[in-house]
Structures are given as C-alpha cells and as structure tokens.
Amino acid sequence: xxxxxxxxxxxxxxxxxxxxxxxxxxxxxxxxxxxxxxxxxxxxxxxxxxxxxxxxxxxxxxxxxxxxxxxxxxxxxxxxxxxxxxxxxxxxxxxxxxxxxxxxxxxxxxxxxxxxxxxx
Length: 120
Hints:
Layout: E1 3-7, H1 11-23, E2 27-31, H2 34-43, E3 48-52, H3 60-68, E4 75-80, H4 85-94, E5 98-101, H5 106-118
InterPro entries: CheY-like_superfamily, Sig_transdc_resp-reg_receiver, ST_Response_Regulator
Keywords: Phosphoprotein
Protein name: Response regulator
C-alpha cells in the first residue's frame, strides 16, 4: 500500500483529499501545518508528499526546502491557488516535482497521483 503525507491547513479540502485517496486504498497521514508535516516526515516513510503552499508555522515552500536538505528522492506535489508562472517556477525551484492549481477536482488529483506513483 502506498503511503502519502498530505499537508493542508484547510480542513474541508484535507478531508476531501483524504476520503478520495483512502477510497483508492492509499494510506494517508494528515498535517494541518508545515511543522506538523515535517515532524511526520521525519518519523515515517512516504511514497509521495502533497503540500499546500500557504500554511501556518512553515509554508509549503519552507517545508519543501527543509525536506530537500535531507531527502532528494521523495516525490513532492504542491497544491496552490497561486498559479501564476513565476509562482510555479518558485515552487519547482524550491524542490517540488509537480504543481497542481487549486481549485481541482478529486478525480484530477487522483489521476495525477496515480501517474506520479506509476513512475516509480
């Protein structure tokens, strides 16, 4: 079973993503802020990280930069309503592998996750 870490501070969106992924037999750990996500990451093995851009304590960019200090292999997808080209470039240069603009449908997210995990 593939294990995913979801870092998203919006509770309704987090619940929607978790329900969608668990229905497809993914194991999902949830974090509501960047520091909680970093702590979970340090204590578990993940196949994919899904990270919101704007979160309390550590932003998505700060979280990715801290993770990339110790792990270059983990696949990371950033979710953000900030979808201007310069924002996407900032996200990718921070170390994210993929970007998905909000709003998105659960089906779009699921298809992208399956595509990412099939690459391994």
